Every structure is written in C-alpha cells, then in structure tokens.
Amino acid sequence: MNPMILILTGVLLNAAAQLLLKMGMQRIGHFDLTMGNIWPISLQAAGSLPIWGGFMCYAVSIIVWMVVLSRVDVSVAYPMVSLGYVVAAVIAWAWLGESVGPLRLAGIAVILLGVFMVSKSA
Length: 122
Known about the structure:
The structure is a single chain. Helix 1 runs antiparallel to helix 3 (49-71) and helix 1 (3-28) packs across helix 5. By secondary structure, this protein is mainly alpha-helical. The radius of gyration is 17 Å and the shape is globular. The chain has helices spanning 3-28, 38-46, 49-71, 74-80, 83-96, 102-121.
C-alpha cells in the first residue's frame, strides 16, 4: 500500500479520535479534576459511545502508524501528523460550531505549507 495513504489514514483516525473524545466530553460537561469526582466522571466516560469510539480510533491509528514507521523515515512521517490539526480544525468548525478566525486560518496555511515542503523533501 502507498505510504502516503497509510499516513493519511493514521492522521484521519487520530483526528477522528480527538473529535469523538470532544463530543463525548461535551455531553459530560465541564468538571474539575478532584479526588471526589474521579469515579463519577470515569463512570460517565466509560458509558459514552463517542469516548469509546475515540479510544478505538486511537487504537487503530497506533497500529496504522506502526506500519507507517516500518516504511517511512520518521523525519518525513512525523511532520505529516500535523495535518491532523488541519482536519480537526475544519471538522470542529463544521460539526461542532467552533470558531476559526483569521489568525487560526493563517496558522493552518503555515502547517499546510510546512507539510508540503516536508513531503517534497522525501
């Protein structure tokens, strides 16, 4: 399989994991990390399908990433992980209603330029 497809698969799975975890935590809501609420919050998280989905996406992304690292130099592969920031920002904007202002858009453009430059150096 093409290493770039594997890299993009790993990146998309990782971004999906982040977004699913965020959706799960939105349902649980804001909480303070104290000894008194570790157990109740853990139980809520354990019963959350989006959180389980996020864990599963992470698990599969780790396996995919191990395959990537067996085929691609880490100095090329690892910078590609930053594409996950772009994917997550776009989906968070579209699905979760998060704001993406001009400065964040400029940062995304810089990330894309950097990934393009790294991919051309491979």
